[in-house]
Design a protein that fits this description.
The chain is of the alpha+beta class. It contains five helices and four strands.
Length: about 220
């Protein structure tokens, strides 16, 4: 299949790389979120530079704070997506696919897992964040929301510049206004790299069969 040659069955290099990336991304993402959640009130801002701020917000929606579909459906959708990407990653490990492609898939999967963790557990283990109160960890089940209904913590804000008032449609608006988190960044960068460099491997991975399985 397009010169893809399976590696030795004993080879676990790509598997180790994928596991390290997934665990590292999840740990980093959760450390950042928990630090923000337990040290900042909702809407609080810390100025790092004039164009980069730590701005604590929460959302029920998808990446970059979008609110499109219901919370329960979105949580279930995330679970399904993670299941698919996990299956896909296992399917293509050590099958001759470029390691860079495996890395990008791992980043996307890890980012989705990071945001899913918020949805699954933050409502169970944290009190509610408000503009007047900083959340605290609480006994499991005594938090602000039931299982699957936790809010995703976002904090990275890059108001790079404001469009001049005289410009039509965008005058006075901030050029880049979404607030996002580390997991969102991993998903976005992973998808972008796949689209730019690895598009041909997506379908190849879906239809890959071991040579001894082919007729």
């Amino acid at each position: 299949m397009d010169n893809l040659q399976p590696e030795s069955r004993n080879s676990s290099r790509q598997g180790r790389i994928a596991l390290i990336i997934i665990l590292s991304v999840i740990v980093i993402d959760q450390i950042i979120k928990m630090l923000v959640k337990t040290n900042m009130s909702l809407g609080e801002t810390i100025d790092i530079t004039s164009w980069f701020k730590i701005f604590f917000v929460e959302n029920n929606g998808m990446a970059f704070g979008m609110e499109i579909i219901g919370k329960l459906f979105l949580s279930l959708f995330r679970i399904g997506a993670i299941g698919f990407f996990t299956w896909y990653l296992i399917k293509i490990l050590n099958k001759g696919f470029p390691t860079g492609y495996l890395v990008t898939i791992s980043f996307v999967l890890a980012g989705a897992m990071g945001n899913l963790f918020d949805c699954l557990f933050y409502g169970l283990i944290f009190t509610e964040s408000t503009p007047f109160n900083v959340a605290t960890m609480t006994a499991l089940g005594d938090g602000y929301a039931p299982f699957l209904y936790g809010k995703v913590v976002d904090m990275f804000y890059f108001p790079l510049w404001t469009w001049p008032d005289w410009m039509p449609l965008v005058g006075g608006d901030i050029f880049f206004s979404p607030v996002f988190n580390f997991a969102d960044s991993c998903i976005t960068c992973g998808v972008a790299v796949i689209l730019l460099f690895y598009t041909k491997y997506v379908n190849m991975g879906l239809h890959y069969k071991n040579p001894d399985e082919e007729d």
